[in-house]
Specification:
The chain is an alpha/beta fold. It folds into 2 domains: 64 residues, Hypothetical PUA domain-like, domain 1 (Ribosomal Protein L25, Chain P, Beta Barrel), CATH 2.40.240.20; 162 residues, SPOUT methyltransferase, trefoil knot domain (Alpha/beta knot). The chain is 30% helix and 26% strand. It is built from 6 helices and 11 strands. The strands form 2 sheets. A 6-stranded parallel beta sheet has the order 8-7-6-10-9-11. A 5-stranded mixed beta sheet has the order 1-3-4-5-2. Strand 7, helix 3 and strand 8 form a beta-alpha-beta unit. Helix 2 packs parallel to helix 3.
């Protein structure tokens, strides 16, 4: 949506758009003082904003705000083994649009890239851009963990599904009983998981197959998350 803009916070019923958002608003949208736009800051609300001043940045007055309906979904966390930057960016973009709450990136034995704080920061920016497109108003929590931390954290979830190419276990189609509960999904990198890693993950997760072909990581996480959201009833009346 090209008339939706991100801002950091509201101060005295006023918001300021940064230079990037201002450039798009003024040069592309040809906005003028008095025009109304939609803004968000990650708090789960959509803001109706009236442009009050245009300069190096744009200042807007908050007209009203209302809850964004996309925030009321089952909290799904996706654990992604580290992939190359392009694949990781694609995964984060897709998962943001699919309305997951948390993304955890972790290194595994066959990872061909590492993860650090700079990459996490860039992924957060990528996710904000995806929020603008898909019209959600809350941010995805993106973090990194070590493999051992991932194993430990899986104990906190009500359901954990592990997409594993070496199993023939079918996907659980009906997940209505898990709606509103904590769900975790695990997807590997291009090289998959080592035998030892798969054994560790399988202690806390249900291994499932995503079909007879081997999917790229961005496709695998997108396909699995889509199937889970559908199975939970998030795409229908539920």
């Amino acid at each position: 949506m090209d008339n939706r803009y991100y801002f950091e916070k509201v101060i005295n019923n006023s918001v300021e758009l940064d230079k990037t958002e201002t450039g798009h608003l003024v040069k592309v949208r040809r906005a003028k003082v008095g025009d109304t736009i939609t803004g968000f800051c990650g708090d789960g609300f959509d803001y109706t904003l009236k442009i009050k001043k245009i300069g190096k940045t744009v200042t807007c007055q908050v007209v009203n705000k209302q809850p964004n309906q996309a925030t009321d979904v089952t909290p799904v966390t996706v654990f992604l083994a580290t992939t190359k930057n392009d694949a990781l960016n694609e995964s984060v973009d897709n998962l943001t649009q699919l309305n997951v709450k948390n993304i955890v990136v972790f290194d595994c034995a066959y990872s061909v890239a590492s993860i650090d704080s700079d990459k996490i920061a860039k992924l957060c920016l990528k996710s904000i851009q995806a929020c603008k497109q898909c019209e959600r108003a809350d941010f995805v929590n993106i973090a990194s963990m070590k493999f051992k931390q991932v194993i430990e954290s899986l104990k906190e979830f009500d359901l954990v599904l592990f997409a594993y190419e070496n199993t023939t276990n079918p996907f659980i189609a009906d997940l209505k009983d898990y709606k509103g509960k904590k769900i975790a999904l695990i997807v590997g990198c291009e090289g998959g998981f080592s035998t030892l890693e798969a054994e560790e993950l399988s202690k806390y997760a249900k291994t499932i197959s995503l079909g007879k072909t081997i999917l790229r990581a961005p496709v695998a996480c997108t396909a699995l998350t889509s199937a889970v959201m559908s199975g939970l009833g998030e795409w229908g009346a539920g």
